[in-house]
Each structure stands twice: as structure tokens, then as C-alpha cells.
Amino acid sequence: MKVFVKLVAVSMIFLCLLGLIQNKVVAEYNQSVENSILSKVEQETLGLINQERTSRGLNILKLDSTLQYLAEEKAEDIVKNNYFAHYSNKYGSAFDMMKSANVEYRVAGENLAESPDIKEAVNAWMNSESHRENILDENFQYTGMAVIKTKDRGYIFVEMFICK
Questions:
Q1: Alpha carbons 49 and 53: distance in angstroms, whole number
Q2: CA separation for the pair 73, 69 (Å, rounded)
Q3: Separation CA 113–CA 152 (nearest Å)
Q4: Per-residue pLDDT reduced to its tens digit, 25-56
Q5: β-strands 142-149, 155-163: how paired?
Q6: CA geometry: angle 39, 42, 45, nearest 5 deg
Q7: What is the pLDDT of residues 107-136, one digit of tens each?
Q8: pTM
Q9: 149 contacts: CB under 8 Å, gap ≥ 6
């Protein structure tokens, strides 16, 4: 009986360690994926957003490659066509863009910002009730983030959120 209990205890410790190793590998993989897809400015912006979430006990937002692509398209459209709005003459709304890209979601949202600097943009979002609600919505799991530096408008930020 004692040998069996020891084996069970050793097995449980092994499984816990294996779980920790797997979690670390997954976290490192996710970070490397984000680093390969996101620019340095986008990484910093997403990092600030995830700090806001984790400081309130929420999970971090994970990067979704389709949302990432859509956010980039929207940001480029905003810069190219010199507008600042949630509705694009080319793409429609963020929801229209997601539908055309076959993104499945239960809830979705979009934040836009035009700012000379990253921290100011995130602070502006956190000081706006509707933008803050998107950032801190516990249902949102995935995001796509695009930040484009312009010649005369500072940075254009587009972030899309979904809950699958």
C-alpha cells in the first residue's frame, strides 16, 4: 500500500511538472507567434492592454491571425483614405469585415485611436467608457492589433476583439 501511495504521489508530481513545462512551452510559443506577427509598437500596445486586463484578474487577449489581418487592412484603409471612423466605405463595419472573412464569434468589438504615442492611446481608451469596456470585457478572448505611424497624424490604432 505504501509503495502504491508513493507511486501515485510521484506520478502526480510528474504530471504537475509536465503540465508546468507544457504551459511554459505554450506561453513561449504564443509569445514567439505574437513577436513574429506584431510590430514592436503593436507588441507594446497589446502588452499595455494585457497589463490592464491582468491587473484586474482577467485573462490576456490572445492574438488571432485573421483578426490581425483585418485590423491591418482597416488601419491601412484609414490612412490611405484619410478618415477616422468605425465605418469604412470599402469594408463597412468591423462586423462586416469579420463576416466577409468567415470569422465566427459570439460577441465582437473594435477600438480605434489616433494618437502621437502608444501610452496616450491606451490611456485614452481606458478613460473612455465604451473603449474601456472592450478592453476589460471578460468575454473577449482574441484580438487583432494594427498600429501604423503616419507622417502627419501620429499613430493610427485599430484593435478588434472577439469571443468565440
A1: 6
A2: 6
A3: 14
A4: 434 434 444 455 899 999 999 999 999 999 99
A5: antiparallel
A6: 155
A7: 999 999 999 999 999 999 999 999 999 999
A8: 0.78
A9: 41, 155
